[in-house]
From TrEMBL, chain A:
Name of the featured protein: Large ribosomal subunit protein mL44
Residue intervals of the RNase III domain: 92-274
Family: Belongs to the ribonuclease III family. Mitochondrion-specific ribosomal protein mL44 subfamily.
Chief place of localization: mitochondrion
Cross-referenced PANTHER family: LARGE RIBOSOMAL SUBUNIT PROTEIN ML44, RIBONUCLEASE III
Biological-process GO terms, alphabetical: RNA processing
Subcellular location: Mitochondrion
Membrane-spanning residues: none
One Pfam family, short name: DSRM_MRPL44
Gene3D superfamilies: 3.30.160.20, Ribonuclease III domain
One GO molecular-function entry: double-stranded RNA binding
Keyword Acetylation applies: no
UniProtKB/TrEMBL annotation, chain B:
One of the protein's GO biological processes: mitochondrial translation
Family: Belongs to the mitochondrion-specific ribosomal protein mL43 family.
Ribonucleoprotein in keyword set: yes
UniProt KW keywords: Mitochondrion, Ribonucleoprotein, Ribosomal protein
A single GO molecular function term of this UniProt record: structural constituent of ribosome
Every Ribosomal protein/NADH dehydrogenase domain range: 32-105
Species whose genome carries this gene: Penicillium argentinense
Protein name in UniProt: Large ribosomal subunit protein mL43
Compartment list: Mitochondrion
UniProtKB/TrEMBL annotation, chain C:
Gene Ontology CC: one annotated term: mitochondrial large ribosomal subunit
Organism of derivation: Penicillium argentinense
Family stated for the protein in its record: Belongs to the bacterial ribosomal protein bL21 family.
Name under which the protein is recorded: Large ribosomal subunit protein bL21m
GO molecular function terms noted in the UniProt entry: structural constituent of ribosome
Chain intervals with Polar residues compositional bias: 65-78
SUPFAM superfamilies: L21p-like
Region described as Disordered: 39-106
Amino acid sequence: MKRLQLQRWSSSVLSPRARAGSRLHQQLYSTGLRLQSTASPLQSETSIPDDVEHVDIGDPGMMRHVRRVHKRKTQLQYPSPPVDAAIKSPKLAALHARLYLPSRLPVQTLARTLVDASADRNADFNNEALATLGHDLLTHYTSEHLLCNYPRLPLSVIFAAMYAYVGPKTLAAMTKEWGVDWATVPGGEVDPGLLQFKRIDPGTKVDEVSQLQSPRPYAAQKGWRMTVSSKIFYDDEFGDAIKGSAASNEGVTTEMASATFVRAVMGAIYLHAGRPAAKRFFEQHILSRHLNISELFNFSQPARDLARLCARENFEPPVAKIVSETGRKSRHPVFVVGVFSGQDKLGEGAGASLAEARERAALAALKGWYLYSPLNPRVPSSMEEEGAAPWKPAHVDVGEVIV
Amino acid sequence: MPVKGIRTVASARNGVGAFILQCKRLDFHYCNFWASSRGMLNFLTKDLPAFAREHPQIEIRVSPRPAKHPVIKGHYINGHEKAICVRNLEPEDIMKKTMILKEASGDKLKRTKKPVTSVNESVRGIWSPYHGDLRGV
Amino acid sequence: MFSRSILRSFTSELRFTARSSISAAPLPQRACLHQTSWLRTTQQQSQSQSQSPNPESPLGATPRAQDTQPEIQQGSKAPSTPTSTSNTIIPQTRADVPIEKQPVAPNFDTPLEITKSLMSSLPHLAGQTPHYVVAELHARPYLLTAGDHIRLPFLMPKVKPGDILRFNRASAVGSRDFTLKGSPYVDERLFECRVRVTGTESEPLRIKEKTKRRQRHTKTAKSKHRYTIMRVMDVRVKTPEELLQEGAVVVEDTENTTKVEARS
């Protein structure tokens, strides 16, 4: 396989200053232009501070004042902080070191990941593109981890587990755990180490889905049943309806902006440092979190599901038997009921009534089936490592029971 | 729909994968004229650069606070703040106080009796009186 | 003269030089593993024991202290190591401790001996997750599973937040149905238990009033102890294949060997 030219790829997201670029670039940008070539050259304004540098005013206090005024003027010119401010921000440097980000990822890109699209509409300076990439990577790694480790999980539980690992709530919590604060109002003079986004107006309904954007046919029909499998095709990774892009001057919630930031960091690591670093970042920050998948199930009729499952798998039909009991005539009886299929005990549960105990036993049996996990599972992306052992096909299950 | 998923948030376990130092910012306040700041001024000029170089993950702010005793304030990721007054202390002692602030988790001080706290389920399960043999009475 | 702007500029400058120098230069390895495992890794360089070794160049999303195998920094941190006798090697982190006070490093001149019965029952134990370990530290048992939070009842000296320790003394390692009991300790080559130091914590100030009879004076004794807090990174039992690869030898069963006990 040909070696990837990471430097070349990542240079498009980098500011020219951080590029290992030519001297011409450095000369061009030493005048303080805005970085990307798509931005229109603003020679007239930007040349002023340059002149100020050279003018020798005798009074140093006056000189400082004049400089500050000009600096402020240039800062206010743009909706997000200028690139050279990133090098001078201690917050940003501390964040870079705190996350143990690779040294190949420059602080300028980290500063860019902190600018939400609602703060700066210009796609060259906000984190939207990085976040799109990061989101795809995060969901890809999470889904392959879930599918290879728990091949029998029902789809709705997979959606819930995906949400628990890389959902916006989790990512927003991660932003807090990384110690990232947000600016109240975005602007060019804000410290680039703060998360910048335009806040949504109070009273706006956040959860309202604009039905027109949904790719689902007949989306306007309220009463129509939406199957779980249709969510794979029409909805997003968490089983939610896809929301349309926000209107131009609408803000975002703190949660959404934080989630976009974490995704953008993931995308930036992938671009600057490559796939192994991105995968390690994912494992250390996402997979290391604690999630008990057995708590994500919500069965409505476990006994019925278990009967269907046994019929599908050609087991003998499940029979509930009392294993032991105490105090049947008392105020607090306890029944321990096991669900048996022939000679095999599928599950066991204790309850205060026979029905409750049977229900719990069926639930335990179903969880035991769905939470099957193969020994030493490997994920497909582990094949991308150098010197990986030959791939053995992962176990693929037929799926959940359909009632 | 036979089974539904319950949405939760995976809880963080700092240190299992990545480790993030809980102290995110240290503020050093000093006074230029009071004698109680003498050790602090020495510390700021002599030891602080090396400390900052060793701990790039901590943001360091130095600011004067005239006519007050010198103070170090630690800001933590959980939003708490700890302050230690370092009046009349020598630079070595101030370094010790700085290390205390750096290593602290930022949580409220609690008295705990058990050394291990776990969110995992018991590995061997919980003992049940309804299983196993009946002992003769 | 201590002007604010000068100091500001000074510290800000310093922060940047600090960051770049740290991230660019190969950092002195701070992972302070137990001496034993350190020795073993030096002896058996070729074997990778646990996770995939980190690829060198594409960087450090890895925290520095996170490598499972510590690199040996010969003389980079402490150039004056105490005079080492014959072939004892002293880890840099313990260089300040006098040699006679250092913990005795186990010298694995004999390979790990596994009895046949253990060999046959070990896969059952290794295959059943999760695992627990009863790790002993200063003769106190700690029942640990992966992800647990420990607050040691003392302040561990010479550790920094972020360091990784390996607990190598365990009286029992087990899963739900199987337990490997040591007599008195399980051989440390059979399992892995790593913990990461996450900082120190202190208890609230305790004030005890000391009084004596017929004296109006009351003495108040104050105490505020500090404790080391840690996080268990993983608890793992090695599979027989791994052990054989690391040079274990299968021997015949004898009396009082360690056995895997199934749950009754």
